[in-house]
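Q: I'm building a small set of examples for a reading group on sequence design. Run inverse folding on the following structure and report the sequence directly after it, with nothing in between.
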């Protein structure tokens, strides 16, 4: 397959024009290229891509597991969503990502929250093929780094998926997302040493799921930042949890060049102590209208709408193409150019040193990409 090699700076020039603000942004110089396809799951002939996978790294090793797609029939034809138990261990090499091991989890998993550390990967909650998880998994490498070791280290008092999690000191902080089946404002601390779960001040915004967030330093202290997400409508607001006083503060909405941007379904990765990168996000106007129409129309009118909606090309959904950077010190958003591939939602996003991997994701409702791209930040 021919490699795709483009820079987000060049994409910016062609797609959105040049500005003096962008020219000063070092992250405008991200060189993206196609890395490889995600390997094929067991009992299938090809990989059609997944959304909502577990995706993290332990050093130069990348773990991608689970996720979901529609392998038999399209959403329009009522196809069933399949959640996978496959786990792929891959390693960075000079020739790209090499598959080290294809193994299977005890159960399917997807749409949980991933935290990568130097020693292992934590995975909180997620959906099974049927049912929702309340577990915290911990994934490490075996002695010769040829396989993974997966352990359930805790069971929470609630089921959760579509949330946000971060780690500070000896604790995992969890914004629940969908908690026991409902969009939630629940926010919790799980102490890894004591194995105790503690409820914290509830989220200050409207209850929601599929937000993005990271623990970032605002120049004075670490805070837990949560942006976007949605319910029947997409949100563009942001909040920061102050660990010192157990309270939430309003921070900047997601807005670039005067335009509000939905991050519902997007993915984020921390790129330094004070900044995070976000890729993806459903278009707010299209998402809000689709939820209204799909929930309100009946009979022939509903079927006509579905036929028109699900047969659109990916570009017609106008998902966020910008590589967004949030700076906690300045409480500002900016664009570092555009991804030169179809904007993904629900992709795995993994950072190793100066490289960011965008792994699969949905490219239109019900359709995934099997591709993995790597962006090198100069």
């Amino acid at each position: 397959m021919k490699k795709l090699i483009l820079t987000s700076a060049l994409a910016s020039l062609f797609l959105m024009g040049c500005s003096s603000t962008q020219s000063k942004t070092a992250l405008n110089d991200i060189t993206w290229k196609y890395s490889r396809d995600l390997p094929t799951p067991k009992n299938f002939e090809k990989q059609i891509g997944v959304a909502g996978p577990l995706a993290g790294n332990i050093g130069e090793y990348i773990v991608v597991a689970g996720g979901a797609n529609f392998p038999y029939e399209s959403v329009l034809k009522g196809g069933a969503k399949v959640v996978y138990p496959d786990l792929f261990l891959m390693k960075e090499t000079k020739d790209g990502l090499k598959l080290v091991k294809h193994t299977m989890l005890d159960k399917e998993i997807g749409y949980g929250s991933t935290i990568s550390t130097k020693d292992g990967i934590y995975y909180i909650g997620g959906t099974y093929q049927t049912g929702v998880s309340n577990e915290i998994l911990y994934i490490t490498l075996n002695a010769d780094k040829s396989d993974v070791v997966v352990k359930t280290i805790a069971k929470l008092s609630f089921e959760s998926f579509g949330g946000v999690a971060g780690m500070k000191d000896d604790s995992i902080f969890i914004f629940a997302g969908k908690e026991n089946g409902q969009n939630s404002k629940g926010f919790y601390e799980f102490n890894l040493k004591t194995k105790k779960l503690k409820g914290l001040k509830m989220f200050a915004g409207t209850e929601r799921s599929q937000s993005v967030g990271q623990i970032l330093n605002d120049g004075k202290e670490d805070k837990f930042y949560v942006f976007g997400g949605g319910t029947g409508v997409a949100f563009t607001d942001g909040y920061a949890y102050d660990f010192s006083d157990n309270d939430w503060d309003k921070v900047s909405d997601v807005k670039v060049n005067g335009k509000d941007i939905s991050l519902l379904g997007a993915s984020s990765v921390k790129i330094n102590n004070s900044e995070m990168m976000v890729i993806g996000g459903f278009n707010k106007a299209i998402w809000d209208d689709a939820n209204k129409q799909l929930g309100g129309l009946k009979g022939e009118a509903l079927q006509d709408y579905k036929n028109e909606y699900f047969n659109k090309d990916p570009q017609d959904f106008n998902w966020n193409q910008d590589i967004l950077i949030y700076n906690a010190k300045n409480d500002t958003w900016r664009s570092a150019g555009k991804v030169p591939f179809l904007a993904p939602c629900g992709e795995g996003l993994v950072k190793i040193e100066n490289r960011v991997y965008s792994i699969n994701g949905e490219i239109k409702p019900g359709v995934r990409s099997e591709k993995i791209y790597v962006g090198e930040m100069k």
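The radius of gyration is 20 Å.
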